[in-house]
UniProtKB/TrEMBL annotation, chain A:
Presence of keyword Cytoplasm: no
Biological process per Gene Ontology, one example term: transmembrane transport
EC identifiers of the protein: 7.4.2.10
Name of the protein this chain belongs to: Glutathione import ATP-binding protein GsiA
UniProt cross-references to Pfam families, sorted A to Z: ABC_tran (PF00005)
InterPro entries noted in UniProt: AAA+_ATPase, ABC_transp_ATP-bind, ABC_transporter-like_ATP-bd, ABC_transporter-like_CS, P-loop_NTPase
Taxonomic lineage from the root: Bacteria, Pseudomonadati, Pseudomonadota, Alphaproteobacteria, Hyphomicrobiales
From TrEMBL, chain B:
Protein's membrane topology: Multi-pass membrane protein
Superkingdom of the source species: Bacteria
Transmembrane segments: 36-58, 99-125, 146-171, 191-210, 222-244, 264-286
Organism whose genome encodes this protein: Rhizobium anhuiense
Membership in a protein family: Belongs to the binding-protein-dependent transport system permease family.
Subcellular location: Cell membrane
Keyword terms, alphabetized: Cell membrane, Membrane, Peptide transport, Protein transport, Transmembrane, Transmembrane helix, Transport
Domain ABC transmembrane type-1: 101-286
Key word Membrane present: yes
Protein name: ABC transporter permease
Lineage: Bacteria, Pseudomonadati, Pseudomonadota, Alphaproteobacteria, Hyphomicrobiales
Length: 247, 300, 281
């Protein structure tokens, strides 16, 4: 579903340049959930942004659903992958009601029968349809994240890009959101690319995990590896231990 | 909070009028905690009321001259005294309110949208568009509004419309700057990025996402600028470039009262007090508005 | 871990905090003691854990109404102290380490100046001595090349180093009680353990008490001798290890954590309605 080859990103500001992503390659099969874990500055968010079409300075080769994708996205290409952002307090427009926030993607893409789709989207993420009249500041963090997920799914993309979707949430709310994501994935046969710094979350959600450091992948672990506590690289071991999971 | 409730409630958003009513109610509640701000708004409301019902409120006709009663000090018959033509100053002040409100409203309605549009376009698109618009803004900012008004008066003839145009032409740059600053911050917000991701066109993003976030600051800034604009308008009137006589423009009244200031102080001072009160009211109301509309600036 | 003193460093009984005329108190009837040991307070947002920490330091805004049957630091009551007296205590006898060094360090002063300021204020040292003490403290928090760091400004150093600087500044005067409010939440995962170990080491060395406030129950369980669990402003349970958890909230919280060792299809979710009913009793 996702095929990335030799993705390279360099950020230049004035004289200094930062080689954020160093020629990485990976693939995600349909229905698979791939996790990328690493610390801040390792480049994992940049990879996600390149896939979403938010970065324009990358070189390399990206394919979504078998079709090569360029730096500028057409409307059709945008429908392929949608993103869920980290900060539930920043991803919804403060002045738009929830119903409007969910209707916007449909309007922008020229869909019809908007309100019934909005209602369906809200119910699917476990929120009452009456929430459509509320403003984001009237919702809790977890509820806002549900709306963000509903918005990402409303265009029925086959791929969902998740940028630390639960980092800003309490543990008990995180559990609810992760369950929601797992349910939606199963129901709609979605492909997920999940980026996080939390190894436990990644291990729970993903079939495979790539460990990223300084723009490169240093290790790849399967679910079985994670369960057994097997790592093939010193940095991966360090991350494992730092997550306070008894090895 | 994972309640899955099937509801039959229609989820179309409520009508614009009920939304506005709800916002006003919210604002009203917040205002109730700020007595000073409330006072400012009350005074402004009073001014509007006076402007609308001027013919009913003014004790005398502002234009009728009664030379026998010229330069009478404030008394029960003439609460603010009379001017050199025997006209009742209070009535002239009351009718002058219309001119002031008209000036303020016209200028706001011209300057606000223009400044907002230019600022938001510059901030959102960045690059060359931004540079071009901001340099234009800088050029206009360097014009002294009074001198420009003089030039206009010479070209188009003195009058209220000329004064309004002249002031408007030089009052929009600060608004544009402000709107641009807000737009620069907002365009990097996640919700704008998300909008780009689901295919919203730049125009849609500009008007539905960016502009609404800049409007509160612009409104507050306009209100706070009002005091300055009133003074500028009064200065123009003082110079004879605003509303022409016998129109009871406050600045013009001060100008004509100058000659008598030492012996008959009320002719110049009364309109001066009116200008002072109005400017003060706008400043106070503007402060309160900022607290209501922009929680970041609110005093805790 | 030895209790050389019988008197606890911090003794809290019946602490209540209310904000304005809010219906629900932020902190309700909280009682606990902290000796020369490491105690952790765990809770989610809204549990009242941070408010408790700030109430102890008397750093809450004037709108907050704080009352307690007892709030003593080494036997001396805190609630009756004036702001001036509290000012003398803060940094000297009680220290507060906050979450993000980007916001808790003064951005316009160099690192050296800030730490030296603390030394001057709390230890009464003169300028040169204060700088010496600052340098020594930076070495103590394992910052290599302290001279270079002393000249830097907060925005020029990493988060992990910023927290070490914060610890240096706060522990310079060897306070009796250290309150750490989410000291590692803003840091990278690999740096967290080092910062905590450092804090632990210094606290033991000074024979102080440590009150560690966090939302990360696994971290608190790994570092603290006692764990206090808070929910909706109340203490629901006190544990020494996660296995001892009995209260439904604590058990629910632990069950909701994803664990790669025990992968599950769906994570256990808290039944809030039931929980609210139980805690209200």
């Amino acid at each position: 579903m996702i095929n990335v080859r030799d993705l390279d990103v360099v950020f230049t500001s004035g004289k200094s340049s930062n080689h954020v992503v160093r020629g990485i390659s990976f693939q995600v099969g349909q229905g698979e959930t791939l996790g990328i874990v690493g610390e801040s500055g390792c480049g994992k968010s940049t990879v996600l942004r390149c896939l979403a079409g938010m970065e324009s300075g990358w070189t390399g080769h990206i394919e979504l659903g078998g079709k090569p994708i360029g730096r500028k996205r057409s409307r059709e290409e945008l429908k392929f992958a949608q993103m869920v952002f980290q900060d539930p307090y920043g991803s919804l427009h403060p002045r738009h009601r929830i119903g409007t926030a969910l209707a916007e993607p449909l309007r922008a893409m020229g869909h019809s029968d908007i309100w019934s789709k909005v209602e369906k989207a809200l119910v699917q993420v476990g929120l009452p349809a009456s929430f459509a009249n509320r403003f984001p500041h009237e919702l809790s963090g977890g509820q806002r994240q549900r709306v963000a997920i509903a918005r990402a799914l409303i265009l029925s993309p086959p791929i969902l890009l998740l940028d630390e979707p639960t980092s800003a949430l309490d543990v008990s709310i995180q559990a609810e959101i992760l369950n929601l994501l797992a349910d939606q994935r199963e129901e709609k046969e979605l492909t997920y690319l999940l980026v996080s710094h939390d190894l436990a979350v990644i291990a729970h959600m993903c079939d495979r995990v790539l460990i990223m450091k300084n723009g490169c992948f240093v290790d790849e672990l399967t679910k079985a590896d994670l369960q057994a506590g097997v790592t093939h690289d010193a940095y991966a071991r360090e991350l494992f231990e730092a997550s306070f999971i008894e090895a | 909070m994972s309640d899955v409730i099937r509801s039959e409630i229609q989820i179309r958003p409520p009508s614009v009028s009920s939304r506005m009513a709800a916002s006003l109610a919210r604002a009203g509640r917040k205002l109730a905690h700020e007595p000073l701000g409330l006072a400012g708004f009350v005074i402004l409301g009073l001014l509007c009321f006076i402007a609308i019902f001027a013919p009913l409120l003014a004790p005398y006709d502002p234009a009728i001259q009664a030379l026998g009663d010229a330069l009478q000090p404030p008394s029960l018959a003439h609460l603010a005294g009379t001017d050199e033509f025997g006209r009742d100053i209070l009535s002239r002040l009351i009718f002058g309110t219309r001119i002031t409100i008209q000036t303020v409203l016209s200028i706001s309605l011209i300057v606000g949208p223009i400044g907002l549009l230019i600022g938001v376009v510059a901030g959102f698109f960045g690059g060359r568009v931004d540079a071009l618009l901001m340099r234009a803004t800088d050029i206009v900012l360097s014009f002294p509004s009074l001198i420009l008004a003089l030039a206009f008066a010479a070209a188009l003839g003195a009058g209220l419309t000329t004064a309004i145009i002249a002031i408007s032409l030089t009052a929009w740059p600060p608004i544009a700057r402000l709107a641009r600053a807000e737009a620069l911050v907002v365009r990097n917000a996640d919700y704008v990025v998300a909008a780009r991701l689901y295919g919203a066109s730049p125009i849609r993003i500009l008007f539905l996402y960016i502009a609404p976030m800049c409007v509160p600051s612009v409104i507050v800034r306009l209100t706070l600028n009002m005091a300055g604009i009133i003074l500028t308008a009064a200065s123009l009137g003082f110079l004879g470039l605003g509303a022409q006589p016998p129109a009871p423009e406050w600045g013009a009244m001060i100008s004509s009262g100058r000659k008598f200031m030492l012996d008959y102080w009320w002719v110049a001072v009364m309109p001066g007090i009116a200008i002072l009160l109005t400017s003060l009211a706008f400043n106070i109301a503007g402060d309160a508005l900022r607290d209501i509309l922009d929680p970041r600036h609110a005093r805790s | 871990m030895q209790d050389r003193d019988q008197k606890p460093v911090l003794s809290v009984k019946g602490l209540n905090v209310r904000f304005g005329r809010g219906a629900v108190p932020a902190v309700s009837n909280v009682s606990f003691d902290v000796g020369r040991e490491r105690v952790g307070i765990v809770g989610e947002s809204g549990s009242g854990k941070s408010t408790t920490g700030r109430a102890i330091m008397r750093l809450l805004p004037p709108a907050a109404v704080v009352s307690a049957e007892r709030l003593d630091l080494a036997g001396s009551p805190l609630l009756s102290k004036t702001e001036r007296q509290m000012g003398a205590l803060r940094g000297k006898d009680i220290a507060l380490i906050m979450q993000d060094p980007r916001y808790s360090l003064n951005p316009v002063l160099s690192i050296g100046k800030q730490i030296a300021e603390a030394a001057r204020l709390h230890l009464g040292l003169h300028k040169k001595q204060a700088f010496e003490a600052a340098r020594a403290m930076l070495e103590r928090v394992r910052i290599s090349d302290p001279d270079r760091v002393m000249a830097l400004y907060p925005h020029q150093i990493s988060g992990g180093m910023g927290q070490r600087v914060m610890i240096a500044m706060m522990l310079l005067a060897r306070p009796k009680l250290v309150i750490a409010d989410e000291p590692t939440s803003a840091l990278d995962v690999s740096v967290r353990k080092d910062v905590l170990l450092l804090l632990d080491e210094l606290v033991r060395e000074n024979n102080s008490g440590l009150l560690l406030i966090s939302h990360d129950i696994r971290m608190v369980a790994a570092f603290c001798e006692r764990i206090i669990v808070m929910y909706a402003g109340r203490i629901v349970e006190t544990l020494t290890s996660l296995e001892d958890a009995r209260h439904p909230y604590t058990r629910g919280l632990i069950a909701a954590l994803p664990d790669p060792k025990n992968p599950v299809r769906r994570l256990a979710v808290l039944d809030r309605a039931k929980l609210d009913l139980e805690t209200a009793q």
